[in-house]
Amino acid sequence: MKKRNNPLDRFARDLSPGVLxxxxxxxxxxxxxxxxxxxxxxxxxxLKGDHRTAKANGSARQVTxxxxxxxxxxxxxxxxxxxxxxxxxxxxxxxxxxxxxxxxQRFEIGDALLEAGALCHPCSRMETALGKGxxxxxxxxxxxxxxxxxxxxxxxxxxxxxxxxxxxxxxFDTE
Length: 175
Prior knowledge:
By secondary structure, this protein is α+β, with helices and mostly antiparallel strands. It has one domain: Beta Barrel (M1 Pyruvate Kinase, Domain 3), CATH 2.40.33. It is built from five helices and eleven strands, in the order H-E-E-E-E-H-E-H-E-E-E-H-H-E-E-E. The strands form two sheets. Strands 1-6-5-9-8-7-11 form a seven-stranded mixed beta barrel. A three-stranded antiparallel β-sheet has the order 4-3-10.
């Protein structure tokens, strides 16, 4: 797979690792996210037990990731003192790593290898979940949509780290 050229890619290798704080799967469409301590990531599909896994095969939105830091920004903009991750309808919450710098990068969480693609924009349901201005509060802070390139077990507390340059094949252009 050929990756787009981005002059900032070479700096992604210097990202400090983060931590996986929270995992949620939604067994049915429009259902509540169920918080779990660990889950199996299925290559090319999604998270075991999540309803999207059956229909996300090959999709760029197999898993959604948001950062604790983004949630804090959303809390700031909405004035809500505490927002449970399940309200935001993302599968994974990470912390301690610059999530925007992970865009278009491959990174590992536990045994799984993910590739971040598009920004995960808020849906109109965030107006109901967070109140008036909820969508606006999430713009730019909605997280990332990811593909699972290698499946495996991921668990709360796992390290989130960018693949080393030698493992990323053509992802880092050193010229």
